[in-house]
Backbone:
């Protein structure tokens, strides 16, 4: 009976959200400004004064982070459980930012290097048109491609200018894979940036060696938040789960990225997706919606950051998180089975394994990620730009290197030599 009720609610919701999605195209900037009036300082702004015109995405506490309310009381920072990954948003995608905000998706994630700076410029364009929305937003950005503290400071200053804002809510050191980056120099810089009012919270993102990086972060009192790869595949990783637990216990906010778990080999991924589609359509979801719901079954995750490059995707993802149907143990078993069956098409980011097997070529996991962008996301330009950042000397050797030692120890059993050759062919 309950299941039937859920299905009915879901149908009604999809109808409602369809109408809202179309209607929003005609909503004025003034309506955005008045949609969610805050009762606290900062991005915890929830509608209290007016009834929302659109269904609002549920919110979760951002770890143990707090902020001051208007009355000076310490209150938890809350963010939508679905955050807006603006990796592919640029200055022309203003409608998406407007719509996201209407659904209460006020947590926007960008980075210094996304879309060659156009992602931050897009947010800047939005804020220059709607300056009053700044206090409703929780903006996260990242210091990309840094080697020194001076680089981190430089990236921050540029990001502030691009986004027309004088502070960033959450600032990450981007893509750490070795814990020596989390040193006292970085700690002091983060403290100073907070004192200057340029950032409110600080943390890091990690795509590789995630368990090691999270374990290191859990021990540091100055890390407020960590963005990590986390999806139905990585939910099976015991070491990563232990590390996530350590962060959660330490009160560090965890934001999941790459929640769709896309891999390098299209054929294998398509087969996995076919099985997920077969199962989850019977449950009333698309595979993409089910993947988001799977990550959010983990209460340790504060928000799932998902790239949404068009209105249909935004609506579909919002529908997934508004729907109250819970995934069952049987659903989770299907995810586990698909994850096992398709592991040879997915690089798990355990760079320490391939780097120790092949110390002279420490770029295998990077190349795997760029190939994933190319093959699974269709991000050919981005993949080529990232590939071009590999030092020329190493790039020249990628096709001729002997990868047998890495293939022998790769826990995912990836055909590394074949994939490296494919990457050189497509990305060089
Ligand atoms: S190629 Fe294999 S060993 Fe290297 S990071 Fe990917 S999954 Fe891990």
Residues:
């Amino acid at each position: 009976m309950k299941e039937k009720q859920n299905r009915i609610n879901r149908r009604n919701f999809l109808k409602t959200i369809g109408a809202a999605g179309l209607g929003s195209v005609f909503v004025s900037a003034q309506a955005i400004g008045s949609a969610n009036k805050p009762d606290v300082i900062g991005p915890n702004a929830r509608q209290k004064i007016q009834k929302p015109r659109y269904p609002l995405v549920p919110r979760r506490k951002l770890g143990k982070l707090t902020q001051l309310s208007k009355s000076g009381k310490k209150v938890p920072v809350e963010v939508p459980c679905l955050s807006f990954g603006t990796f592919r948003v640029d200055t022309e995608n203003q409608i998406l930012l407007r719509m996201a905000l209407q659904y209460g998706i006020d947590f926007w994630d960008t980075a210094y290097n996304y879309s060659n700076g156009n992602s931050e410029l897009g947010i800047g364009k939005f804020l220059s048109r709607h300056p009053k929305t700044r206090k409703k937003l929780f903006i996260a950005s990242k210091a990309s491609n840094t080697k020194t503290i001076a680089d981190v400071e430089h990236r921050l200053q540029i990001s502030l200018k691009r986004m027309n804002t004088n502070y960033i809510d959450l600032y990450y050191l981007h893509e750490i894979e070795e814990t020596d980056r989390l040193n006292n120099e970085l700690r002091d810089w983060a403290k100073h940036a907070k004192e200057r009012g340029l950032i409110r919270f600080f943390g890091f993102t990690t795509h590789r060696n995630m368990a090691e990086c999270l374990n290191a972060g859990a021990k540091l009192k100055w890390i407020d938040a960590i963005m990590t790869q986390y999806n139905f595949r990585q939910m099976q990783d015991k070491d990563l789960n232990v590390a996530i637990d350590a962060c959660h216990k330490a009160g560090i906010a965890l934001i999941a990225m790459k929640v769709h778990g896309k891999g390098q080999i299209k054929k294998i991924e398509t087969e996995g997706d076919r099985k997920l589609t077969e199962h989850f359509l019977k449950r009333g979801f698309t595979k993409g919606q089910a993947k988001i719901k799977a990550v959010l079954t983990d209460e340790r995750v504060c928000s799932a950051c998902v790239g949404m490059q068009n209105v249909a995707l935004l609506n579909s993802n919002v529908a997934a998180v508004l729907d109250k149907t819970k995934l069952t143990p049987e659903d989770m078993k299907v995810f586990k089975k698909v994850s096992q069956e398709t592991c040879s098409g997915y690089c798990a980011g355990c760079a320490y394994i391939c780097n120790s097997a092949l110390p002279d070529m420490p770029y295998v996991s990077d190349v795997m990620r760029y190939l994933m962008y190319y093959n699974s996301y269709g991000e050919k330009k981005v993949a080529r730009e990232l590939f071009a950042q590999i030092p020329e000397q190493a790039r020249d050797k990628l096709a001729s290197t002997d990868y047998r030692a890495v293939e022998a120890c790769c826990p995912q059993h990836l055909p590394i030599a074949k994939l490296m050759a494919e990457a050189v062919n497509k990305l060089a």
Summary: Confidence is low (pLDDT under 50) at residues 1-9, 18-49. The beta strands are 59-68, 74-80, 82-85, 107-109, 138-143, 168-173, 199-206, 225-229, 253-257, 301-307.
